[in-house]
Design a protein that fits this description.
Length: 225
């Protein structure tokens, strides 16, 4: 099992953090990963440090109150659904790298104050979400799994699901999605190629979520979508 696969298993959303600065070498490692993701994916992810205003007061406590968040990643990407998918995919790559560094994270779509001076947005881009970052007061807990492999797969191959495909879907089911909605489906075609689709949701964020689960699937299965 690779470090990133271990991170998929270990990562849980964390909203409460301790007042401990992130070491300079870890910040640089995060910046290097963000730079790589931006070059590869055409995203504009940005690491924001020592900025206490975005999480100074939760705007929607029903989704969980945040404490001691002074560092976060601004998930800036091209406008539209394709940009949202890229944002999810590469944002999750950074999340998993942060986990390997001993840091905790949480994807956040609503419960933060948008501090527009903390990051930059180029024409044609938008802020999709942010990722809280730091040393968690706890390591978080895994959400009860709402869906099974059968619930989120379609097998068009007329053969039993291969082990690599099952492994990928299991990892996808561990991925964070908005309010744990898991509005995605993986399709195994007759030629063993795989497609991933999302479903409509009143909550939104389904294309961002799709990018996140694609990231998990590819890392765990070793197969590109």
């Amino acid at each position: 099992m690779t470090l990133l696969e271990e991170a998929i298993q270990a990562r849980h959303s964390v909203r409460q953090y301790i007042d401990k600065p992130i070491e300079a070498d870890k910040l640089q490692s995060l910046r290097d990963t963000i730079d790589l993701c931006n070059r590869e994916g055409g995203t504009h992810l940005q690491l924001i440090t020592d900025e206490p205003l975005a999480f100074s007061k939760s705007n929607a406590p029903m989704y969980g109150k945040f404490t001691n968040v002074r560092n976060y990643i601004a998930i800036v990407a091209p406008k539209g659904n394709e940009g949202s998918e890229l944002a999810g995919y590469y944002g999750e790559r950074v999340v998993l790298h942060a986990q390997t560094l001993g840091l905790n994270t949480c994807w956040v779509g609503l419960t933060f104050k948008n501090i527009k001076t903390a990051y930059t947005v180029a024409p044609g881009e938008e802020l999709k979400a942010v990722i809280a970052l730091g040393y968690g007061a706890t390591q978080g807990v895994q959400h009860p799994q709402k869906k099974s492999i059968e619930d989120v797969t379609i097998n068009k191959s007329n053969q039993p699901l291969p082990e690599w495909f099952i492994k990928g879907v299991e990892a996808a089911l561990l991925a964070p999605t908005a309010v744990n909605q898991q509005k995605f489906t993986f399709i195994l075609n007759a030629d063993q190629s795989v497609q991933a689709q999302t479903k409509f949701s009143l909550i939104g964020y389904t294309h961002l979520d799709l990018g996140i689960v694609k990231c998990h699937f590819e890392l765990a299965s070793g197969h590109k979508l």
